């Protein structure tokens, strides 16, 4: 039952970031701003920090492949980058005290690693030709801002939720 709650939560966030977020007027005519909501990634990090690292990595693989299937043209890139980033950020989190400031900082670092990893892989295989300075200016900075605000908004309720659930799912 507890696993189904986590799956439903992640799946709803997956739907929201893919269907509801494009309706907001972030991309006005004449601008090149690309805001990428990484809500599933942020909740996966919080599940890994405050719940079960094992389940966080399993869901990272699952939702990474789901993202590849639905949104990407190359299968496996997002799944690899998402899982690797969740693992690396979790490894760093074991060395620090996990309060709201460190959670936001690690989440921002994770979003940077994820976006940069996907960008580099897509650049190497020829899927994107966006210049690096434009990537930083028009994609990475707006993405960081949106996801940092989202992390601050969900920190307390999700931390309590995952700490409660972690008793039953095993660390």
TrEMBL record:
Bilayer-spanning residue ranges: 6-27, 39-57, 69-92, 104-125, 137-156
Top-rank lineage group of the source organism: Bacteria
Keywords assigned by UniProt, alphabetized: Cell membrane, Cell shape, Membrane, Transmembrane, Transmembrane helix
Membrane topology: Multi-pass membrane protein
Name of a matching Pfam family: MreD
Intracellular or extracellular location(s): Cell membrane
Family, per entry: Belongs to the MreD family.
Protein name listed in UniProt: Rod shape-determining protein MreD
Lineage of source species: Bacteria, Bacillati, Bacillota, Bacilli, Bacillales
């Amino acid at each position: 039952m507890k696993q189904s709650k986590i799956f439903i939560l992640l799946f709803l966030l997956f739907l929201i970031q893919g269907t509801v977020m494009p309706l907001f007027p972030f991309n006005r005519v004449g601008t090149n701003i690309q805001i990428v909501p990484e809500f599933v990634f942020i909740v996966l990090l919080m599940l890994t920090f405050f719940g079960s690292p094992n389940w966080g990595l399993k869901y990272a693989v699952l939702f990474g492949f789901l993202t590849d299937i639905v949104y990407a043209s190359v299968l496996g890139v997002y799944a690899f980058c998402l899982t690797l980033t969740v693992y690396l950020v979790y490894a760093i989190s074991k060395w620090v005290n996990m309060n709201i400031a460190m959670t936001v900082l690690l989440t921002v670092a994770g979003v940077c690693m994820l976006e940069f990893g996907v960008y580099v892989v897509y650049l190497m295989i020829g899927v994107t030709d966006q210049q690096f300075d434009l990537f930083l200016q028009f994609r990475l900075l707006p993405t960081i801002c949106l996801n940092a605000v989202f992390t601050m908004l969900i920190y307390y309720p999700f931390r309590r939720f995952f700490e409660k659930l972690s008793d039953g799912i095993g660390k």
